[in-house]
Amino acid sequence: MKLWNVAKIKASKAVCKLPCVTAYDAAFARLADGAGIPLILVGDSLGMTMLGYGSTLPVTMDEMLHHTAAVVRGVKDAMVVGDMPFLSYQISIQEGLRNAGRFLQEAGADAVKIEGGAFRVPLVEALTQNGIPVLGHIGLTPQSVNVLGGYKVQGKTQEAGEALIADAKALAQAGVFAIVVECVPPDIGAAITAAISVPTISVGAGPACDGQMIVLHDLLGLLETPPPKFVKPYAALAETVRNAFSAYAGDVRSGAFPDPQHSYAPSGQPLS
Ligand code: KIV
């Protein structure tokens, strides 16, 4: 049995904070899991971080399942949540149920994440009643970037803030085990957190939330572009990796690599 599951995540509310990250392959998932991260999201941010797309919209079910299965293979204790990609759950409850089931059945995920507020209640109920735990996601929902008019802070007016609280309450009532709250002012993050009995996981929603989530590449400083304001990078791996590639290329060109230390012993056989 894994150390982390839905019951333990829910029970952590107001007891301990949840440091969550995204991951997309077995190698990084193993490192995050080994560091005691309780929840690893295989986000559809995969599209930008790993696949070179400009948004999450082109990401497919096959791509998500492929990467989710890899993450699952790297993890021992963390919950692995598969992010349902654009159009995999919007068409109908039936399609949503079938695609969510594939994350558990084919990729070995423990739960799925879907974007959207109160209007997702029927889908959340269908999934949870059929044994599929759901992580909600409100605030900035990147699959709706074209409707939102860009990647902007949400919930800035009183009306918008109250609508987010109502969304969170509806999702919690419908059975989500936690809710990602993305890009909202910290007081709105705090109000949502106080209003519901399941944990909130902040992506730029302030310190009052029950957990925090940072996209792996932002956390490790793996991208060349500046991260969003709410990201604190904990490493500068882009520079480290670039320097390693340059040093390697220089050594190969100069003949410094491979040296005897990195070569097998000569066979000593006479060759014709
Ligand atoms: O796709 C993703 O990585 C996400 C997180 C930022 C919550 O949705």
Shape: elongated
How much of the residues is beta strand, in percent? 5-15%
Spatial order of the strands forming the largest sheet:
1-2-3-4-5-6-7-8
Count of helical regions: 11
- Radius of gyration, in Å, reads 21 Å
What is the residue-mean pLDDT, rounded to a whole number?
98
Describe how the helices and strands are arranged.
Elements: H1 6-11, E1 18-22, H2 26-34, E2 39-42, H3 46-49, H4 61-74, E3 79-83, H5 93-105, E4 111-113, H6 121-129, E5 134-139, H7 145-148, H8 158-174, E6 178-182, H9 186-195, E7 200-203, E8 211-214, H10 216-219, H11 237-254
Parallel strand pairs: 1-2, 1-8, 2-3, 3-4, 4-5, 5-6, 6-7, 7-8
The structure holds 3-methyl-2-oxobutanoic acid.
3-methyl-2-oxobutanoic acid binds at residues 22, 41, 43-45, 83, 180, 182, 203, 213, 215.
Please explain how this structure is put together:
This protein is of the alpha/beta class and 272 residues long. It is built from 11 helices and 8 strands. The protein has helices spanning 6-11, 26-34, 46-49, 61-74, 93-105, 121-129, 145-148, 158-174, 186-195, 216-219, 237-254, and strands at residues 18-22, 39-42, 79-83, 111-113, 134-139, 178-182, 200-203, 211-214. Strands 1-2-3-4-5-6-7-8 form an 8-stranded parallel β-barrel, surrounded by 6 helices. Helix 2 links the parallel strand 1 and strand 2. Helix 2 crosses helix 4 and helix 8 packs parallel to helix 9 (186-195). The protein is elongated and about 80 Å long. The model has no long low-confidence stretch (mean pLDDT 98).
